[in-house]
Design goal:
This protein is 55% helix and 11% strand. The chain has 328 residues and is an alpha/beta fold. It folds into 2 domains: 2-136, no CATH class; 157-319, UDP-N-acetylmuramoyl-L-alanine:D-glutamate ligase (3-Layer(aba) Sandwich). Strands 2-3-1-4-5-6 form a 6-stranded parallel sheet, with helices on both faces. α12 links the parallel β5 (272-276) and β6.
């Protein structure tokens, strides 16, 4: 009876721990670099050594849990397979029968206590192992969606306005779409969609050959904007601002500047850059991107660069407009 009570407590505690780590994995967008950063952070260390669930974990509002998606369910299934394999190996070591019946009570008690104890401690590892197959499938799925969306966009050949920066990307995108939609049909990605899959998926589902497409280009590391721009090349680049965000991933402000400059470098000949002239060092993003752009277009005329009066206020973001009503 005591063993059953102990096992019940372990099952409940293990479920809570598993759900929390699955939620953290989803929160970090299933990215190993962001997950690694979490593990070495105070929050990650607290989660690793947190043995006893909190009282709030037993409530719907207190338990951190993931949004149920196909990927989450797949990771759960893979985790179950790992756990089943672990159970089979453990049962053979402790000489349990094939049906799981105990051939020796003492051996059975040791097996269950050690198995559940080890399982509880290694739940973060089990979640990560379960995510590996999903990462491989996600890469394939992302590639297929990217290829289809890129073909669709290139076939329609709209003017693509790309927006990047450390802040204000989504608000700039939505405001610009609102202004342009008064005179033009405009496609704009929703919310803060700025990854390869989210942008491509939205183009595939919602793009209807509008002559203007406004896309948001996000990055957690160097090369990510460049790869997104290869699939969806911009005609116009807007740089909203620069801030020391995601320093654990980028490593330095210089690396952030280099990453954001990839949008400028991806512009075609006769490309246009609008940038925040008020924010510090945003011009460095433009200049760095121009150097890479010049290497690709040695004979072309210089890019058109337009400094903009763009700053934060108590009510949000403010933009400068010229007398013609064009965004500046």
């Amino acid at each position: 009876m005591v063993l059953i009570v102990i096992l019940f407590i372990f099952v409940v505690a293990s479920f809570i721990r598993y759900v929390r780590w699955l939620s953290l994995l989803q929160e970090k967008e299933y990215r190993w670099d962001r997950l690694k950063l979490l593990l070495f952070s105070p929050q990650g260390i607290r989660e690793l050594i947190r043995v006893i669930p909190r009282i709030t974990d037993f409530s719907r509002s207190g338990l951190k849990r993931p949004k149920i998606t196909g990927r989450v369910l797949f990771i759960c299934a893979m985790s179950c397979l790992f756990v089943l394999k672990w159970w089979l190996v453990g049962s053979s070591i402790f000489d349990l029968g094939a049906s799981g019946s105990l051939q020796a009570p003492a051996a059975g008690t040791r097996f269950w206590l050690s198995w559940w104890g080890g399982f509880y401690v290694l739940i973060p590892l089990i979640v990560m192992l379960g995510s590996i197959p999903s990462s491989l499938i996600s890469r394939i799925q992302t590639y297929l969606v990217l290829r289809k969306a890129s073909r669709r966009l290139r076939r329609a050949a709209p003017t693509v306005i790309g927006i990047t920066g450390s802040y204000g990307k989504t608000s700039t995108k939505l405001l610009l779409a609102h202004l342009l939609q008064t005179k033009h049909a405009v496609f704009v990605t929703p919310k803060s969609f700025n990854t390869r899959y989210s942008v491509a998926r939205n183009i595939e589902k919602e793009y209807r050959d509008q002559p203007i497409a406004i896309l948001e280009y996000g990055a957690y590391a160097k090369g990510e904007i460049a790869r997104l721009a290869q699939w969806f090349p911009p005609n116009v680049a807007i740089i909203t601002g620069l801030a020391p965000q995601h320093m654990g991933l980028f490593g330095s402000v210089a690396a952030i500047i280099l990453a954001k400059s990839e949008l400028v470098a991806a512009l075609p000949e006769a490309g246009v850059v609008l940038f925040n002239a008020v924010a510090k060092d945003v011009d460095k993003i433009v200049k760095t991107g121009q150097k890479s752009w010049r290497f690709r277009h040695p004979q072309a005329a210089p890019l058109t660069t337009i400094p903009c009066d763009y700053h934060k206020s108590a009510l949000g973001f403010e933009y400068g407009l010229n007398t013609d009503g064009n965004l500046t």
